[in-house]
Amino acid sequence: MEKLKILRKSCNYTQKDLADILGVKSKDISDWELNKSQPELKTLRDLAVIFGTSVLDILSNEPVSTTYWQPWQKEQIIDSFWGHIGILLCNSNNIKWYPITSATAQRIHKSLCSDGNIHDELFSVETLNNRYLIINTNSIKKISLLDDSSVAPKNWEIPWDGYQGLGAEE
């Protein structure tokens, strides 16, 4: 992953700096840059967040494209992929799943556990597949949180081409 070295140097990170941010060993960074091994998917996602790009950009042979982004501060904690939120609408039998970050999962969990009654509220959630859900809690049967290490439930339904969003009518 020659691109990793280019990205790391463009941000003035040493291998140790990047290893500290990711919570891995400096040798892991060296091995990745020398193509001796590859990082896990969750680490690739974290690298994409750190460098303001995508996993595809990091792995492809094309030039890296970035969006408006400020260099990552070493003291910041990465708000990375946590798992999924599942929404079961009253008029449906299938839960729609959306990827969320750790901070979003904590905020949802806190809201759901605060008083146990979230009816008559609008609930908003930013997802990692570029969706901003505004949920009318009177229109749902169930909200589920599923972390990345959990076994997918029986009603797990993500289409072959990735995540889908709720349509405007939903």
Structure, explained:
The protein is of the alpha+beta class. It has two domains: 58 residues, lambda repressor-like DNA-binding domains (434 Repressor (Amino-terminal Domain), Orthogonal Bundle); 67 residues, SH3 type barrels, CATH 2.30.30. Helices cover 32% and strands 19% of the residues. The protein is built from six helices and five strands. A three-stranded antiparallel β-sheet has the order 2-1-5. Strands 3-4 form a two-stranded antiparallel ribbon. Helix 2 packs across helix 3. The termini are far apart. The C terminus is likely disordered.
Topology:
Elements: H1 2-10, H2 15-22, H3 26-33, H4 41-51, H5 55-59, E1 81-89, E2 96-101, H6 102-114, E3 122-126, E4 132-136, E5 140-147
Antiparallel strand pairs: 1-2, 1-5, 3-4
Helix pairs in contact: 2-3
Indicate the overall shape: elongated
Helix content: 25-40%
Strand content: 15-25%
Overall domain count: 2
Q: Please report the first level of CATH classification, the CATH class of the largest domain.
A: Mainly Beta
Low-confidence runs of at least 5 consecutive residues: 166-170
Strand order of the largest sheet: 2-1-5
Number of strands: 5
Please give the radius of gyration in angstroms: 19 Å
* Major beta sheet summary: 3 strands, antiparallel
**SS-based structural class?**
alpha+beta
